[in-house]
Amino acid sequence: MIGERWINLAVPLALLAVPLYALMADEPFTITLATRATILALAAVGLNIALGIGGLVSLGHAVFFGLGGYAMGILAFHAQNYSPLEIGPLTFAGTKSMPVIWLVAVIVSAMAALLIGALSLRTSGVYFIMITLAFGQMFYYFAISWSAYGGEDGLSIYVRNGFPGLNTLVPIQFFAVCFVVLCLALALNAMLRASPFGLALNAARQVPQRVETVGLNPMRLKLMAFVISGAITGLAGALFADLNRFVSPSMFSWQLSGELIILIVIGGVGRLMGPVVGACLFVALEHWLGGLTDFWHVWLGVVLLGIVLFARGGVVGLLTGKAGPHV
């Protein structure tokens, strides 16, 4: 069996090696695939904080992914059309600066997570799953009816947003930006897991009554985790929209929320590198099997079924010989 520390080191290096090889082989599409896997991994890292540590099975995390995407799309849309963004009596200028867009995406997603979490965490179990799903559908249908920004057709951004000192239209440079953001999110996740907050959150997931007896509020702990999770997922949504230079209501769909959960289950719930492994395998299967058949999800389902039945800790758990946490 392989130690999890070695996996935590090897997985990012392997992810980094793929686009570097593609750069030398002059295969820009492979770099784009690696970038897509990196961004999906970032979104799953966000969800894994709520799911893996806090035990919160959310079917509405696409809300934050979509909000991050639309934050990017709206700001970039107003910047490329030289039109002001008006919110009530306030007027803002659009922007093509990635750091500014990321900040807006994180703030908007965190605020939405605070509101949704405060309402959803009054329930638990299947009721929590259903209320997060309901919020996701609300935002999805709102985006469809939002004709000012494309409605059902979505919104196209002609030129990718800029990052100081880089040419983000070069695939390897945009991958580098996404990869660094993913590494920072993984570092934050590792710090949270080892911090008193992470330990208390893990205890609240297992035995909330004991957490209350020592003076801690389980709901407050889970709400903080939900907000952090939503903020990271929103940042991933902004990067995903920048990758495609397109935003649409599908970013709010419950199918996307389900895919994020699948990524974590494949890699390993609660594992630091579980979301990264799951995202890489998902994108690889989507690319290879999608070229063979339109029904490649059937084979993805077979893989998922095998992991659920025979590898409860996901691929990482299978390699380390340790089962994952029971959510």
UniProtKB/TrEMBL annotation:
<keyword id="KW-1133">Transmembrane helix</keyword>
<dbReference type="InterPro" id="IPR043428">
    <property type="entry name" value="LivM-like"/>
</dbReference>
<feature type="transmembrane region" description="Helical">
    <location>
        <begin position="35"/>
        <end position="57"/>
    </location>
</feature>
<dbReference type="InterPro" id="IPR001851">
    <property type="entry name" value="ABC_transp_permease"/>
</dbReference>
<dbReference type="GO" id="GO:0005886">
    <property type="term" value="C:plasma membrane"/>
</dbReference>
<keyword id="KW-0472">Membrane</keyword>
<keyword id="KW-0812">Transmembrane</keyword>
<feature type="transmembrane region" description="Helical">
    <location>
        <begin position="126"/>
        <end position="149"/>
    </location>
</feature>
<feature type="transmembrane region" description="Helical">
    <location>
        <begin position="100"/>
        <end position="119"/>
    </location>
</feature>
<dbReference type="GO" id="GO:0015658">
    <property type="term" value="F:branched-chain amino acid transmembrane transporter activity"/>
</dbReference>
<feature type="transmembrane region" description="Helical">
    <location>
        <begin position="62"/>
        <end position="80"/>
    </location>
</feature>
<feature type="transmembrane region" description="Helical">
    <location>
        <begin position="297"/>
        <end position="319"/>
    </location>
</feature>
<feature type="transmembrane region" description="Helical">
    <location>
        <begin position="261"/>
        <end position="285"/>
    </location>
</feature>
<dbReference type="Pfam" id="PF02653">
    <property type="entry name" value="BPD_transp_2"/>
</dbReference>
<protein>
    <submittedName>
        <fullName>Branched-chain amino acid ABC transporter permease</fullName>
    </submittedName>
</protein>
<feature type="transmembrane region" description="Helical">
    <location>
        <begin position="223"/>
        <end position="241"/>
    </location>
</feature>
<keyword id="KW-1003">Cell membrane</keyword>
<feature type="transmembrane region" description="Helical">
    <location>
        <begin position="169"/>
        <end position="192"/>
    </location>
</feature>
